[in-house]
TrEMBL record:
CDD domains: LamG
Cited Pfam families: Laminin_G_2 (PF02210)
PANTHER family: CONTACTIN-ASSOCIATED PROTEIN-LIKE 2, PIKACHURIN-LIKE PROTEIN
Originating organism: Characodon lateralis
Topological category with respect to the lipid bilayer: Single-pass type I membrane protein
SUPFAM superfamilies: Concanavalin A-like lectins/glucanases
InterPro entries: ConA-like_dom_sf, FA58C, Laminin_G, Neurexin-related_CASP
Subcellular location: Membrane
Domain of life per record: Eukaryota
Main subcellular location: membrane
Laminin G domain ranges (all copies): 53-179
Residue span, F5/8 type C domain: 1-47
Key words, A-Z: Membrane, Signal, Transmembrane, Transmembrane helix
Name assigned to this protein: Contactin-associated protein-like 2
Length: 179
């Protein structure tokens, strides 16, 4: 609760110590003024905020670098939301020097997840796994994606619908480069 002014002429300013990220603000007057009236006049000033919303024109790319040069991951969780009117495009891609990769892309307005936890040098252990989910994802609406992997077991969730699968091959680590 913030104390307000005591008359209809003065202004009271409050600066928050911590920033607030919100979509809506709801302000409720809780007491009458000494003049016997209740009222509210407010001005809200924001600060610069980097929203985690990224727009692409089909030509751009965003690169993320991990803190270490090489990652050997046994468990990972990737969660994101996307909205598009396009039916084709790469959403996420990471790869390593061992041939490991993870790719999430739109193909014919369906979501395609491709994972390879590695293949041996002779090709007898093929690790490529490909799973498709959803349809009509080029509807310009927000869609939520969560990829949870522990070793070779993967939960692939799109808009609350989960597919459980096990990756091909015998390897259970995802070896990725740091970018």
């Amino acid at each position: 609760a913030f104390s307000g002014n005591s008359n209809s002429e003065s202004a009271v300013r409050h600066e928050l110590q911590q920033g607030i990220v919100a979509r809506f603000l709801r302000l409720i007057p809780v007491a009458w003024s000494e003049e016997g009236r209740i009222g509210l006049r407010i001005e809200v000033y924001g600060c610069s905020y980097w929203a985690d919303v990224i727009n692409f024109d089909g030509q751009g790319v965003i690169s993320y670098r991990f803190k270490v040069k090489k990652m050997k991951i046994i468990k990972d969780v990737i969660a994101l939301r996307f909205k598009t009117s396009e039916s084709e495009g790469v959403i996420l891609h990471g790869e390593g020097q061992q041939g490991d990769y993870i790719t999430l892309e739109l193909r014919k307005a369906k979501l395609l997840l491709q994972i390879n936890l590695g293949s041996n040098q002779y090709g007898s252990i093929l690790g490529h796994t490909s799973v498709t989910t959803g349809s009509l994802l080029d509807d310009n609406h927000w869609h939520s994606v969560v990829i949870e992997r522990y070793r070779r077991n993967v939960n692939f969730t799109l808009d609350g619908h989960t597919q459980h699968f096990r990756t091909n091959g015998e390897f259970d680590h995802l070896d990725l480069d740091y970018e």
